């Protein structure tokens, strides 16, 4: 405890780090304040009543969790930063398929990144207009949610502008945190929204367990959550190091050259290179049965396999969800990790993997090793994705169960590790002890932060 207090004092004594932390806290407070400013002409109580009848893990519940309750509050930040995340994912996928975006990302350096950021911002506005229209349509269809005396044209036009402005402002707040604060701003805004729903879910589960069973069951739940978080940290930090060696070089004059052994280094292959993206893609696929059910009669939609695929706790849903996550992990890792680029880079640097011939043999070796390393990572992501359903089946309430896995847990773990790594860097630069007694936080250099472009 004394060591921890001393570390906090060291953090506070570094003026730049203290200012960055205070600035980040201030921006997060502004973001949370906007989550309670309600759109004009909207009754949030009616929306909350309608939301209470939905599951906590459906698509609307997931969006509400990411926005910290702003979605159900009909706030100016109701869409949060999600349109920007969608735009970033689209641009990133285009970078794998469209030569123009590949050139911007890989060959044009800083100017290319600026162009990509500008395109992402414009695409964010377009997506916000589309999603904002759908959100207002949902509000309009909710009984008692809209003031009947308000002119419909004014309601649509004004609130669509406010929602778009709110998303652009949230995007600007995230960029300011990245520039002047600590950590990745977009990721921190998402984490702030997720954590904002944690206290209510925590105390609701505590009250439920005290009323139904005992405090022992609740303590066991916390122990399980702690173990899952530790496992998530291990998988996020885990790397497979491929040793490489640079060729020998000659030192001295031509008449007496002395051969010097080449330096040794390694290529880090992330166990979970795909991050949370496979779960997001698989979750999007699993929302399709609910959309398809809308085209059938109520009797047909509520029978058979279609009904089970709309229940996130059912066995068929979780089996399909698990395998989709595993498949998408391999697909997304294949897009991110390019063995051919690794082999070409090693050849240009006059380096090689010991025991492996340069060129095609090196490419095949990295490809095979990536495939093997991805297997445990994909299985872990699959288990993490269905773990909320497992704990929910044991009586944990839905709102608290989502923190036992899925995108919520992985985002929180990844963002916290990334932020702590930056704090650690500031401490070590000024010759203070780091946040851990032995070793150092590895950060996530091989894992792209949310909302950034490669």
Automatic annotation (TrEMBL):
GO terms for biological process: intracellular protein transmembrane transport; protein targeting; protein transport by the Sec complex. It is a multi-pass membrane protein. Keywords: Cell membrane, Membrane, Protein transport, Translocation, Transmembrane, Transmembrane helix, Transport. The central subunit of the protein translocation channel SecYEG. Consists of two halves formed by TMs 1-5 and 6-10. These two domains form a lateral gate at the front which open onto the bilayer between TMs 2 and 7, and are clamped together by SecE at the back. The channel is closed by both a pore ring composed of hydrophobic SecY resides and a short helix (helix 2A) on the extracellular side of the membrane which forms a plug. The plug probably moves laterally to allow the channel to open. The ring and the pore may move independently. This is Protein translocase subunit SecY. It holds the Pfam family SecY. Its main location: membrane. One of its GO terms (cellular component) is plasma membrane. It comes from the Bacteria. InterPro entries: SecY (IPR026593), SecY/SEC61-alpha (IPR002208), SecY_CS (IPR030659), SecY_dom_sf (IPR023201). It comes from Portibacter lacus. Belongs to the SecY/SEC61-alpha family. Component of the Sec protein translocase complex. Heterotrimer consisting of SecY, SecE and SecG subunits. The heterotrimers can form oligomers, although 1 heterotrimer is thought to be able to translocate proteins. Interacts with the ribosome. Interacts with SecDF, and other proteins may be involved. Interacts with SecA.
């Amino acid at each position: 405890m004394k060591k921890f207090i001393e570390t906090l004092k060291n953090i506070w004594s570094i003026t730049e780090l203290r200012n960055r932390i205070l600035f980040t806290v201030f921006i997060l407070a502004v973001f949370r304040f906007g989550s309670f400013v309600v759109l004009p002409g909207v009754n949030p109580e009616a929306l909350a009543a309608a939301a209470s009848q939905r599951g906590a893990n459906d698509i609307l519940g997931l969006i509400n969790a990411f926005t910290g309750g702003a979605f159900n509050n009909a706030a100016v930040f109701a869409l949060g930063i999600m349109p920007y995340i969608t735009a970033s994912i689209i641009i990133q996928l285009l970078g794998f398929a469209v030569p123009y975006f590949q050139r911007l990302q890989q060959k044009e350096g800083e100017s290319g990144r600026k162009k990509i950021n500008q395109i992402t911002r414009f695409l964010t506005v377009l997506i916000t207009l589309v999603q904002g229209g759908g959100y207002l349509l949902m509000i309009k269809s909710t009984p008692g949610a809209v003031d009947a005396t308000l002119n419909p044209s004014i309601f649509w036009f004004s609130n669509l502008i406010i929602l778009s402005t709110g998303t652009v402002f949230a995007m600007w707040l995230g960029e300011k945190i990245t520039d002047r604060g600590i950590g990745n701003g977009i990721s921190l805004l998402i984490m702030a929204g997720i954590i904002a729903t944690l206290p209510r879910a925590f105390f609701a589960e505590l009250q439920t367990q005290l009323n139904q069973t005992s405090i022992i069951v609740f303590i066991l739940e916390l122990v399980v959550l702690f173990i899952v978080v530790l496992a998530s940290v291990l998988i996020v930090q885990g790397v497979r190091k491929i040793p490489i060696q640079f060729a020998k070089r000659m030192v001295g004059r031509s008449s007496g050259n002395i051969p010097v052994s080449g330096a040794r280094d390694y290529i880090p292959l992330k166990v979970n290179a795909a991050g949370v993206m496979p779960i997001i893609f698989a979750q999007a696929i699993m929302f399709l049965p609910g959309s398809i059910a809308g085209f059938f009669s109520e009797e047909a939609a509520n029978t058979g396999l279609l009904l089970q695929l709309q229940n996130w706790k059912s066995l068929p849903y979780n089996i399909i969800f698990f395998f989709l996550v595993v498949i998408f992990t391999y697909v997304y890792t294949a897009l991110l990790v390019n063995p051919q680029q690794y082999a070409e880079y090693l050849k240009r640097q006059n380096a090689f993997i010991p025991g492996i011939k340069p060129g095609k043999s090196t490419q095949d070796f990295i490809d095979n090793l990536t495939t093997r390393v991805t297997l445990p990572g994909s299985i872990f992501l699959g288990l993490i994705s269905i773990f909320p359903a497992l704990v929910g089946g044991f009586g944990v309430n839905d709102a608290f169960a989502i923190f036992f896995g899925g995108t919520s847990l992985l985002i929180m773990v990844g963002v916290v590790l990334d932020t702590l790594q930056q704090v650690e860097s500031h401490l070590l630069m000024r010759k203070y002890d780091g946040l851990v007694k032995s070793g150092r936080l590895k950060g996530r250099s091989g894992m792209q932060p949310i909302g950034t472009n490669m």
